[in-house]
Amino acid sequence: MNKPEKIWLSSPHMGGSETTYVQEAFNLNWIAPTGPQLAKFEENLSTYANNQSVAALSSGTAGIHLGLKLLGVQADDYVICQSFTFSASANPIRYEGAIPVFVDSEDKTWNMCPVLLEEAIERCLSGEFLTGDGKRWTGPKKLPKAIIPVHLYGMPAQMEAIQKIANNYGIPIVEDAAEALGSTIAGQCCGSFGEIGVFSFNGNKIITTSGGGALTSKNPSMVDEAKFLATQARENTPHYEHKVIGYNYRLSNVSAAIGIGQLEVLPQRIEKRRANFEFYKEAFAGLEIQFLDEPMGYFSNRWLTTVLFDDAPQPLNTAVRLALDAHAIESRPLWKPMHLQPVFQSFPYVGNSFSEKLFKQGLCLPSGSNLTLDQLDRVASLVCSVCK
Ligand SMILES: *Cc1c(COP(=O)(O)O)cnc(C)c1O
């Protein structure tokens, strides 16, 4: 018997014109470092960031790191971060030696809970916390330097409530929109709510430059500063003059050429991912499987379709994942919350364990924009056979 063809969780999906733009870069010998393709990619990307300025970078992680640098985050500062996320949201906090304060999620969007955010800010002022592993923790009494909400799986976080609290205390926001390119609230793009927004074009994201990211801000001088830091912080002199520590974080011109082509098909990619979500929702009607609906006015790019299984008698997410795996179908548990990660569990945590429930009961289903109806049918019939 032939081995069944592999179905991936979320694989790259080229539109066709990427190689034309890459060829253009080659024809001009703009292989590296910067060049016209990089400038064009930034200009086109700006459409998906409410026309803010954009700096294209080597990764989304680099964007979060530079965002924290631009806001002056230093060792022993507090930075509040959503706990239910990928580790790249939090790692840059530690690059700077700052203290992550992990905040749990609410059930409408699965993102940062505004009530817990406010509690976390108050705890920063008192310097008293419990850690992810339940121990007492005391530290400096001061306001956090930044807040990092995440639009996980493409679903926008409750930005209105989060911004209101952040504004009350005068704390800037670094918005992790790595998974949410094209998602909006009341028509406003994710990535354009905070002082700084960050996108990722890693291989599994909704569009890819084979590896890359971007930082965006309403404030063009912040974006200029990001580009400066991303190119080794070289001063404008004939020789190499440096006054501050720099990084090698700029996106290459060739990668940007791929990005130009990918941006052209982003609307179709979003449409298809949203269609995947609707397909699964219909296929699983009648089963004990929950989907996360969009709150009024929220538009998710549905980067990944995520489902929750009932917890009684026990969640079927693992059984489903193993059954899919046995048929060469990739699925994945939801993100394990940061406050439960060995590397972060001894840092402050403010929560209600909601993200832990999501981790225990959830599953990400194959969600690529290149999935065929046939492949979706294969996934759905296996899930149904385990759940019936
Ligand atoms: C992918 C991702 C990042 C990091 O982006 P890279 O481009 O892979 O560095 C950050 N945060 C979240 C939520 C992500 O999914």
TrEMBL record:
- Which top-rank group of organisms is this from? Bacteria
Q: Which UniProt keywords apply?
A: Aminotransferase, Pyridoxal phosphate, Transferase
- The molecule here is called Pyridoxal phosphate-dependent aminotransferase
Provenance organism: Mongoliitalea lutea
Please give the Pfam families that the UniProt record associates with this protein: DegT_DnrJ_EryC1 (PF01041)
The biological processes this protein is annotated with in GO are: polysaccharide biosynthetic process
**Keyword check for Transferase:** yes
Which InterPro entries would you find in this protein's record? DegT/StrS_aminotransferase, PyrdxlP-dep_Trfase, PyrdxlP-dep_Trfase_major, PyrdxlP-dep_Trfase_small
Gene3D superfamilies in alphabetical order = Aspartate Aminotransferase, domain 1, Type I PLP-dependent aspartate aminotransferase-like (Major domain)
Active site residues per record: K205 (proton acceptor)
Note the coiled coil stretches, chain numbering. none
Task: Tell me the protein family, please.
Answer: Belongs to the DegT/DnrJ/EryC1 family.
What are the recorded GO MF terms, alphabetically?
pyridoxal phosphate binding; transaminase activity
